[in-house]
Amino acid sequence: MRKSFDLYFVSSNSHKYKEAKSILDSFGIRLGFFKLNLEEIQSNSLKEIAENKANDAFSKCKKPIIIEDDGLFINSLNGFPGPYSSYIFKTIGNKGILKLVSSKRNAKFVSIITYCDKKTLKTFDAKLDGTISKSQKGKGWGYDPIFIPKNSRKTFAEINHKNELSHRFKALKRFSSWYLRKMESNDR
Ligand code: IMP
User: Which residue puts its alpha carbon closest to atom 15 of ligand 1?
Assistant: First the structure.
């Protein structure tokens, strides 16, 4: 029987929530949603940004929550846009990124998931290697039309099994094994 847990995803991005919900569902964890804008500090560290967001989310929701912070790191641009991925997406977007990337197209997507409740603040991270496509392909949100995951010829926007291999899937898988153990030990 599926257990029902009291866990919420806090974000202004409903695409992220939908993916996280479907991934956590597959691990038997039921995820609610608080659609909120959270404080985002300027930092070179995704972990620092995520932990600050998680504290802000918990103080607003007063329930066990997870938040996610992501970054697209392009090797030939020394990791740009990295922690600035959200701002760069809003300003120059995929078109602008494609103009900046030349022959070397290797990149990685990083996901940081931070859990926060009254007593615990814990962070999980994962990366997915890939390349930047030469043009936008497929209809997807964010950088999906330009990110080709490793071992694929299609972008995230063109594949239908993104949730089985994405940076988000990998970070949430790590989170899930910790969270389910934590819930079990609370039950004992
Ligand atoms: P954020 O700061 O965590 O919201 O994410 C940084 C940027 O990466 C935002 O512009 C997101 O839309 C984008 N992003 C995060 N995850 C994905 C994804 O799975 N696909 C496409 N874009 C993403």
Answer: 70
